[in-house]
Write a structure and sequence with these properties.
Number of strands: 9
Shape: globular
Helix content: under 10%
Order of helices and strands: HEEEEEEEEE
Strand content: over 45%
Number of helices: 1
Largest sheet: 5 strands, antiparallel
């Protein structure tokens, strides 16, 4: 728990708990001054151009293989930002960082790609390990 101005400040703190989750849902029991870091692997079966977006209040960032794809960081009300990446058929490391400092708590992570429009990333596309 902390009062951060951005995701970098949040990830430099010592975490207080760790758990396995199957999506990018935030803890609805927490109301202010908390953060989450989601990490795992995203499987891509159809190569092509993929768009990712986060809608958050406050800051969020989305990385694919350590490359910042969506930068929605900082203190702000509900805001959506997006980024694009060309992905091959394989598993990619995905990390979503999110912090909430006051007011509303919002985090939505979506994608669109070859053959489908904006939707949440389904659990069957997310894995704990790279193989």
């Amino acid at each position: 728990l902390g009062q951060w101005d951005n995701c970098s400040e949040m990830i430099n703190e010592k975490f207080t708990e760790e758990s396995i989750v199957y999506d990018f849902s935030i803890d609805q029991n927490k109301k202010d001054n908390f953060g989450h870091v989601f990490s795992g692997y995203l499987v891509i079966n159809n190569p092509g151009i993929y768009e990712f977006q986060t809608t958050s209040d406050d800051g969020s960032r989305l990385f694919i293989n350590s490359e910042l794809i969506v930068d929605n960081d900082g203190l702000h009300s509900k805001k959506t930002m997006a980024g694009v990446m060309n992905l091959k058929k394989k598993r990619y490391k995905i990390v979503v960082e999110y912090f909430e400092r006051g007011g509303q708590e919002v985090l939505d992570v979506k994608w669109k790609g070859p053959g489908f429009e904006w939707r949440e990333i389904p659990a069957f596309k997310l894995f704990q390990k790279s193989d």
